[in-house]
Design a protein that fits this description.
- By secondary structure, this protein is α/β, with parallel strands linked by helices.
- It has two domains: 2-87 and 298-318, NAD(P)-binding Rossmann-like Domain (Rossmann fold, 3-Layer(aba) Sandwich); 89-290, Rossmann fold, CATH 3.40.50.720.
- Helix content is 33%, strand content 12%.
- A seven-stranded parallel beta sheet has the order 6-5-4-7-8-9-10, sandwiched between helices. Strands 1-2-3 form a three-stranded parallel beta sheet.
- Helix 2 packs parallel to helix 3 and helix 5 packs across helix 7 (152-161).
């Protein structure tokens, strides 16, 4: 906010509460705006753009994803679209590793036992609360880590996993993207891995000890993790989703956990969030660790995201290079 308030040529209209902006308030106040900063919870559609009027020049979202923005409608009006990649990469990678550890080591079950005052009902046992170890051991010297999507966040997650002794990295990515064999060889050499290899999604599922879902949302990746894919995974494998809830079929994942197709899951995003009640099929599964979409929720990262969103808006309105602009060529 200081960055915006420091521009006297800008008149600010600010939602006054520390919660998601009320849709009605936004529609009532956007008319005549030159730019708008929105969150993931704000639907940018023709209705909103029509309310803004012809003065609108830029939509700046404080997020790396922009599925909440009708990019065709934005492009059709000749508007600029800003977003906040890069600044949240490390925070999301950190949380992805945390979820893998929590799911593998039955962290959700353990925390629940303590918080419900049930610890006395679970005296120590040789294999009590045991789960698959993320790091390699002398008796188990191979660890294969898989990724669906292998962009900035996936590669940052890979870097964090190296000290655990992982040996192989497998990933699947958009079929339209060109292979990056040279980059993969460089990553393998840099991290002393036996291989970094692009394979088909079925092989990623079959071979991975931990499978990280870190691909963009949208129609092309809707329910890419479904019953068919989950049945291919190892019974000791872990699934982590820190991208978008729509990539994972919640009912299929709940079934996989309930019937033991996989060991556990760590989930930051759920399809239909925040409408996730105690009756949700994933909430009912003890081996599913769920946090409420907090992958970027560090003080440092949220400040950086807000700064980037403000910089994008200022540059678009007052002239200058937007730090992060979505390429809208091909839309509209």
């Amino acid at each position: 906010m200081p960055l915006l308030r420091g521009k006297p040529e800008l008149e600010l209209v600010v939602w006054p509460e520390d919660r998601a902006c009320d849709r009605r308030w936004l529609l009532e106040n956007i008319h005549g705006a030159a730019g708008v900063i929105v969150m993931l919870t704000d639907k940018v559609d023709p209705e909103l753009l029509e309310k803004a009027g012809s003065s609108l020049q830029v939509v700046s979202t404080m997020s790396v994803g922009y599925e909440h923005v009708d990019v065709n409608a934005v492009a059709k009006r000749g508007l600029k679209l800003g977003y906040t990649p890069d600044v949240l990469t490390d925070a999301v990678a950190d949380l992805s590793v945390m979820l893998a550890l929590m799911a593998g080591r039955n962290g959700g079950i353990g925390i629940s036992v303590v918080q419900k005052g049930q610890w006395t009902e679970y005296p120590w046992a040789p294999f009590g609360f045991c789960g698959p170890q993320l790091s390699t051991t002398a008796a188990s010297p191979t660890r294969k880590i898989g990724f669906i999507g292998f962009g900035r966040i996936a590669q940052a997650t890979l870097a964090r996993l190296v000290p655990f002794g992982i040996t192989h990295c497998l990933y699947s990515s958009n079929p339209s993207s060109a292979p990056s064999s040279e980059r993969d060889a460089q990553l393998a050499q840099k991290y002393n891995l036996q291989s970094v290899k692009r394979v088909d999604i079925d092989e990623v599922a079959r071979e991975s000890d931990v499978l990280f879902i870190l691909a963009p949302g949208g129609s092309g990746t809707y329910h890419v993790v479904n019953e068919t894919l989950l049945r291919k995974m190892k019974p000791t494998s872990i699934l982590v989703n820190a991208s978008r809830g729509t990539l994972v079929d919640s009912d299929a994942l709940a079934k996989a956990l309930r019937e033991g197709w996989i060991w556990g899951a760590g989930i930051d995003v759920v399809e239909g969030e925040p409408q996730v009640s105690v009756d949700h099929p994933l909430v009912k599964e003890p081996k599913c660790v769920i946090v409420p979409h907090i992958a970027s929720a560090t003080l440092e990262t949220r400040r950086d995201m807000a700064t980037r969103a403000a910089q994008n808006l200022i540059a678009a309105i007052l002239g200058g290079q937007m730090p992060a602009q979505v390429d809208l060529r091909g839309f509209a």
